Amino acid sequence: MAKKSLISKKEKAPAQEKTSKSTAVAFDAKDLARSAALEVAEQRDQVGGFVSAKDLARSAALEVAEQRDQVGGFVSVDFDDENRVATYLFEAKLSGYRGWRWCITIAKVDADATPTICDVVVLPGPDALRAPEWVPYRDRILPGDVGVGDIVPSSLDDARLVAGEQALPQDEDLDTAMAIELGLGRARVMSIEGRDQAAKRWYDGERGPNAPVAQSAPKPCHSCGFFIPIAGSLRSTFGVCANAISPEDARVVSVDHGCGAHSEATFTEPVLN
Question: Is-above-0.85 flag for pTM?
């Protein structure tokens, strides 16, 4: 019986050894799969082979920031085609810079090179608070901005003006030959574009035919005795009101403007004082 029992143990031993080897092989396969997955994950967070690029980028932003809490959470990362340069974005918790982001660029020339911080800046995000677009000074001036003592610098490239020799004789009230011979006239005069802009602005404004006061006027300005036509090429469209009691006194009005102080406004019935 003892001999049989001994043989039985010998027969069972190889089976146990075989099971142990099978378990070891399965364990090694799991480790390899896990290692491969980790490697892939690390490659997504590396530049040219160095790991923890995101931590390196964050540390660079922390060095530039005045306070640690000014560097917020991770936003995104962009890699170049060769996977050698990466740009990391972190939220910028800076006062007055809502929606801005820390932008850190990291590069590695080759697999053996040391990673390098190329740039650390703060850039606006898609919803960032930004200053309005810059508008040139001459374009910011509005009617009423120029007061007593204010001087508005002129511009040589003002499209509303041209050289004086291009003036229309009817606008300058001078004979062309005489003006050239005597050197009379102004250095610059209004261009056709400038005249068109002025005429449109006047006609569409409060002293044109569509103003409420003109719509209720008894007659238009061109038939009023206080209407003085202006000289030049705009004579057929505009004039100056010279009625002291009119709300338009001393102002340029269109010929089809009007007001209640028309010189020919009459009553249909006698008026008792």
Answer: no
